[in-house]
Amino acid sequence: MLLKGIGKGLAKTREALRGRLGALFSRGKDSPETMEGLEEMLIEADIGVETTMEIMERLERALKGHENTMEVARGIIRDAFLDALKPLEAPLSIDSRPYCIMVVGVNGVGKTTLIGKLAHRFRKEGLKVVIGASDTFRAAAIEQLEEWGKRTGSEVVKHEEGSDPGAVAFDTVKAAQARGADIAIIDTGGRLHTKVNLMEELKKVKRVMGKALSGAPHEILLVIDATTGQNALQQALTFHRELGITGMAITKLDGTAKGGILVAIGKEVGIPIRYIGVGEGVDDLMDFRAEEFVEALLS
Ligand SMILES: Nc1nc2c(ncn2[C@@H]2O[C@H](COP(=O)(O)OP(=O)(O)OP(=O)(O)O)[C@@H](O)[C@H]2O)c(=O)[nH]1
Ligand SMILES: [Mg+2]
Q1: Number of neighbours of residue 178 by Cβ within 10 angstroms
Q2: How many whole angstroms separate alpha carbon 44 and alpha carbon 260?
Q3: pTM of the shown model
Q4: CA 256 from chain center: how many Å?
Q5: Taking the mean position of all CA atoms in its chain, how far away is CA 88?
C-alpha cells in the first residue's frame, strides 16, 4: 500500500503531532494548558502563524463542551491541512515531446537525487530520458549525475567542469530532440557566490532552453528540503519571483518533524507540489496526494 512508504517516511512528523495531541488531551479538554499546548504544537510543526491562528479559532469554538475532544481536534487540524494542500495536488502531466524539466533549488536540497529518482521512474514507464549536467561548478556534481545516468539507463549530456551551464542545457534539449527522447531533465547548481548571480545564471539557462526548443522548459521544478523549516518558505517565494516556478518537490520528509511546512508553502506560494522525497533510495519518491499525505501525518 502506498501509505506504507509515505507513512514510514513521515513517521517523525506524525509521531511529533500524535504524541503531542495525546499528551495534551490526557490533561483534560479545553483547559488553558491544552489550548496553549495545541498552539505551540502547530507552530512547531511549521505550518505557519496564520494557519495556526485559523486552526486555533476553529478549535476554540469546537472544543467547548465537546465529548471526544481529541478526535474533534484531530478532525479540525486534518480539515485545515486539507484545505491548504488539496489545491496543490497536480501531478506532472507529460504533454509534449521531449518534455523539458529544469530542476532548481539551493545547495544540497536534493536536486540531483530527485533527478535520479525521476529518471528511474520515467524509465520504468518505458520513456527515454536525457539528463543535462548544467551544474558545472564542481566535477563531483557531473560525476554524481553520470552515476545516476548509468543506474537508470539514461543518457547524460555534459561539458567540462566550469563550462557554461546554458550551453549544456541547450545541448541537452537538442540531444533529446535528436534522439527522439521523451524527457529532458536539466540539473542545475545551487551554489554561487551571491544569490543574484545564481538567479541570473538560472534565468539564462531557462532562456537558452527556450531557444533550443520553443516552449521549453515545460516545467521549472523547485526542490525544497523540508528539514529547513521556515527557511524553505523564503526559498520558494524567492525562486518563484525570479524564475516563475511551475512545480515543487519537497524532499527529506523522512528525516524531519517539520512536514507541516507543506501547509505553509501551500498557503503562501500556491504552486503545485508534484513530488515528495521520503528517503535516499531510488524508489523513495512519491506523487504528492493531499489526502494521502494528511492521512500519513495524522493517522
Ligand atoms: N533522507 C533523505 N535524504 C535525501 C533525500 N533526497 C536527497 N537526500 C540526500 O541529500 C543529500 C544532498 O542531495 P543532492 O541530490 O546531492 O542535493 P543537490 O541539491 O543536488 O545538491 P547540490 O548539487 O550540492 O546543490 C544527499 O546526501 C542525498 O542522499 C530524501 O528525500 N531523504
Ligand atoms: Mg546536485
Answers
A1: 11
A2: 9
A3: 0.93
A4: 14
A5: 11
The per-residue pLDDT for range 19-29, each reduced to its tens digit, is 778 777 776 65
Count, in order, helices (H) and strands (E) of the chain.
12, 8
Q: How does pLDDT run across 152-202, given as a tens digit for each residue?
A: 999 999 999 999 999 999 999 999 999 999 999 999 998 755 555 889 999
Residue entry with cell 517539520: 258
- Residue 92 · residue 127 · CB < 8 Å: no
**Whole-angstrom distance, CA of residue 256 vs CA of residue 181:** 36
In sequence order, which residues have a C-beta less than 8 Å from that of residue 150 and are 6 or more positions away? none
Cis peptide before 272 (omega within 30 of 0): no
Could you give phi then psi for residue 96, rounded to 5 degrees? -155, 170
111 lines ligand 1 (CB under 6 A): yes
Give residue 126's identity as a one-letter amino acid code.
G
Contact 286 CB / ligand 1 (< 6 Å)? no
Instruction: Count Cβ neighbours within 10 Å for each residue of 106-116 and write b for 16 or more, e otherwise.
Output: beebbbbbbbb
Q: Assess contact for 174 and 100: CB atoms under 8 A.
A: no
Q: Which ligand is nearest to the CA of 10?
A: 1
Bridge partners of 275, per DSSP, are 249, 287
CB distance 135 to ligand 1 below 6 Å: yes
DSSP character string of 185-208: EEE-----SSHHHHHHHHHHHHHH
